[in-house]
Amino acid sequence: MKVEYNKSLKNYNTFGINVKAAEFVEITSEKQLKEVLSKPVDKELFVLSGGSNMLLTRDLDAFVIHIAIKGITIKESNEDFVVITAKGGENWHDFVLHCIENNFGGLENLSLIPGYVGSAPIQNIGAYGVELKDTMVSCEAYELSSGKKHVFSNEECKFGYRNSIFKNEAKGKFIITSVTFKLSKKNHYLNTSYGAIEAALAEQNISNPTIQNISDAVIKIRKSKLPDPLEIGNSGSFFKNPVISKDHFMELQKEFQKIPSYQIDENSIKVPAGWLIEQCGFKGKRWGDAGVHKNQALVLVNYDNASGKEILEVSEKIKATVFDTFKIKLETEVNII
Ligand code: EPU
């Protein structure tokens, strides 16, 4: 286990921001992790997994632990389902593909989400009508302060929309080392309700889709809208879709007849932030190397060498204009460091 000093994190965050870590270590086993956590360090510990949901705006005067522990194991299996565990350093999409190849259903709608398995529970990753919480049984995590291992059940994770205990009371306190899912082996429960998936399947005349068909459709849709972080730095949706009151929504509808919406309950309505941002004229805009993606206004991008601060400034501009126009306060989905 080698400690590196003054290490560039450009290749360790999907935004491709070039900040430096004072100290950096890559961990490939739980044994190494225990060893690191048992030693006193004079710097703050900072956990970096796939770096797919963060915007780094400064150098980190920290001891950065990059989790690269790999492995996929079946814990239990019968005719109907499988309980499968993936280590935190597995690439999320590769794990989803592994499940699809083995005909394990439940994660297909979450295809092509960037990042590692270990960070997936933090923001309860979700796409096309499915969230991680729908199939996650538990996750294992080490407490940074004590070095002790905890098992968090699905309930203990307190999952919500792009939210969990790891973004609240447990924020920055744990390293997630593995995640366990219960997936179906037959009679898969398919979620094709999302309009774009239905359309992609209809286009290919598929009326009885397999989990592979759904994964393929999701991959096609994502590729058409979302930039590949290997080509253009980004962190997926930068903001959450806001939920507003029905009264507020009806007020807005008078002026903006075409405002899209999803009813959450009797009194609350979710509106797509991407639409709000596009209406304010930001879609496809660019300031130096920082900008707003041309196909999806919810995604901020780093074309080459933007700093985290420049991306943050763009996000502040967007927030201010969306608030002036719609009286809606956008919340960031990405962690700002
Ligand atoms: N829209 C626009 N302009 C845009 C973008 C979107 O008008 O530039 C409108 C679309 O026309 C559509 C609506 O907004 O009516 C929703 O758009 P889309 O289906 O692209 O989904 P989203 O609400 O923008 C959310 C998630 C995505 C996830 C998709 C599909 C959040 C914050 N984002 O985006 O998640 O892939 O739904 O389920 O909930 C992520 O979290 O990083 C992410 C990419």
Report on the structure:
The protein is α+β, with helices and mostly antiparallel strands. The chain has three domains: 4-67, Uridine Diphospho-n-acetylenolpyruvylglucosamine Reductase, domain 2 (2-Layer Sandwich); 72-184, Uridine Diphospho-n-acetylenolpyruvylglucosamine Reductase, domain 3 (2-Layer Sandwich), CATH 3.30.465; 233-336, UDP-N-acetylenolpyruvoylglucosamine reductase, C-terminal domain (Uridine Diphospho-n-acetylenolpyruvylglucosamine Reductase, domain 1), CATH 3.90.78.10. It is built from seven helices and 20 strands. The chain has helices at 30-38, 92-101, 195-203, 211-225, 246-255, 273-279, 308-326, and strands at 3-8, 20-27, 44-48, 54-55, 60-67, 72-77, 81-87, 126-127, 130-131, 136-143, 149-153, 174-184, 233-237, 243-245, 262-265, 268-270, 286-287, 290-292, 299-302, 335-336. The strands form six sheets. A five-stranded antiparallel β-sheet has the order 6-7-12-10-11, with no helix packed on it. Helix 3 packs across helix 4. It is globular and about 60 Å long. The relative contact order is 0.13. Bound molecules: uridine-diphosphate-2(N-acetylglucosaminyl) butyric acid.
User: What general form does the structure show?
Assistant: globular
Straight-line distance between termini: 26 Å
CATH class membership of the largest domain:
Alpha Beta
Measured by DSSP, the beta-strand proportion falls in 25-35%
Oligomerization: single chain
Order of helices and strands: EEHEEEEEHEEEEEHHEEHEEHEEEHE
CATH architectural name of the largest domain: 2-Layer Sandwich
Mean pLDDT: 96
Helix and strand content put the structural class at: alpha+beta
Q: How many strands, what sense, and barrel or not for the largest sheet?
A: 5 strands, antiparallel
How many domains comprise the coordinates? Answer: 3
User: What is the number of helical segments per DSSP (H or I, 4+ residues)?
Assistant: 7
Based on CA atoms alone, the radius of gyration comes out at 20 Å
- Largest sheet, order of strands side by side? 6-7-12-10-11
Do you know the CATH topology of the largest domain?
Answer: Uridine Diphospho-n-acetylenolpyruvylglucosamine Reductase, domain 3
